[in-house]
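Run: sequence + pyridoxal-5'-phosphate -> complex structure.
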Amino acid sequence: MWPKQLNAPLEVVDPEIADIIEHEKARQWKGLELIPSENFTSLSVMQAVGSVMTNKYSEGYPGARYYGGNEYIDMAETLCQKRALEAFRLDPAKWGVNVQPLSGSPSNFQVYTALLKAHDRIMALDLPHGGHLSHGYQTDTKKISAVSIFFETMPYRLDESTGYIDYDQLEKSATLFRPKLIVAGASAYARLYDYARIRKVCDKQKAIMLADMAHISGLVAAGVIPSPFDYADVVTTTTHKSLRGPRGAMIFFRKGLKEAVFPGLQGGPHNHTITGLAVALKQATTPEYKAYQEQVMSNSAKFAETLVKHGYELVSGGTENHLVLVNLKNKGIDGSRVEKVLEAVHIAANKNTVPGDVSAMVPGGIRMGTPALTSRGFVEEDFAKVAYFFDLAVKLALKIKGEAQGTKLKDFVAAMQSSAIQSELSKLRHDVEEYAKQFPTIGNTMKMEVMLPYQTSIYLECGL
Ligand SMILES: *Cc1c(COP(=O)(O)O)cnc(C)c1O
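>> structure
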C-alpha cells in the first residue's frame, strides 16, 4: 500500500504544491532576474539534488563515519572534494576542502568557531558599505548578527569619495584593534579586492586572513578575476551564486590549519547537495563554463556602460565583476521606491545601501548583477535592453513619487494603485515579460497548459 503511494508522482500526491512549483517556473521564465547572488543551476545538478542521496546519514568524513553503509556517499563526497580543488587549481598537498557546510552564513560561523576563541576580534567590511551579515554586523544599540554576540567585531569601510575600500584606514584600525581574523569579501562591491594588501595587514597583526568569495567564486573558478588563494589562509564560498551549483557552501583551508567543523557545528551532511555540487564543479572546469563567466563579465561591463549613458551614477564609477551598484541620489529617488516598481514590472533587483546613507530601511541604491540572465543566454545587447527597461522603471517611479499624497513609502505604494499608473505598470510589465520569454529557462521543463477545442486542456512538456 504505502510503497505505491510513496512512488506516486508529485502531481498526483500534492497538486497544490505541484501547482506552486509550476507558477515559480513561469515566474523564472517571464522575469528579468538581476539579483546578483542568484543563478539558475543546471538540470544535471538538480537531478543529483533530487536523488536518493538525500536519505543517508553520514556524520563524519569519508572513511571515518559514525554510521555504516556509506561506501557510495564516501565516493560522492571524495569526488566532490577532488573536483573542488581542481576547479580552483589548488594543490591537494597544500589545500584541503570541507564540502559539508549547509550554506554561506553557517560556513563563516564554522570558521570563526574552529579557529578563534569566543570574543576574539574580527574585522570585516561594514554591512552598509557592501559587507555581509555573517561577518558580524552590529549597530549602536543592537548586535544584529549572532557573530557579533559571540565575537568582537570592528568594521572597515569604503572611502566615500571614491567608492573603493579604504585600505589605509583599515590598516590604522587594525593597528589599534589588533584583530585575530580579517575577512576579505563582500556582497555589494563592484571592484576587485586587494588581497595582497589585506595579507600584509594580517601578517603585521598575526591575524588569520579569511577570504569569503561567496559572490565571485564562479568568476574565480573560471580565472576571469584574481584568486584569493594566493593570499588567504581560509577561503569560504557559497555554491549557489556565480558558481551556479546547488545551495550550499565550502570551506577551503591551508593544510595544517585546524580543520574541525564536525563535530563543532556540523551534524549529518546534506549528501544530495554534496552530490549536486560535485556535478556543478565538474561543469566548472569546462571550456563552456569559462566562456559563460567571460560573458558574465562582458555583460556586466556593457550593463554598467549603458546605465551610465542613461545618466546613472555607479558607486566606484563602474564595475570589475558581475555586479553594479547604482546610486540613485542624483535621480531624486531611493532604492526602496524603485525596488517596488521593479517588482511590479517583473524585474528582480534589490535595494541596497550606498555610501552616505543614513537609513538602511530607505537606502539610496539598487544592486544588480548578470550571472542569472547570462545563464539564460543574455548577451551584451540584451543587457543594453535591460538597462533601458530599468530606466523606464525609474522614470515611472519618479512619476509615482510626484503623484504621491505624502512622503512615506506607504503613500508611494498607494499612488501606485491609481488606474493610470496601473496601466503604465502593466504595459511595462508586458514588454519586460515578452522580452524575457524569448530566452530559454534553465533546468526545468515547463508544463504549459494548452486549451484545446471542446474545453479540454492538456499539458505539453516543452523544454524551453
Ligand atoms: C551570500 C553571502 C554569504 C551567505 O550565504 P548564505 O548561503 O545566504 O548564508 C556569506 N558571505 C557573503 C560575502 C555572501 O555574499
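>> summary
The first strand starts at residue 32 and ends at 33. The two ends are 37 Å apart (CA to CA).
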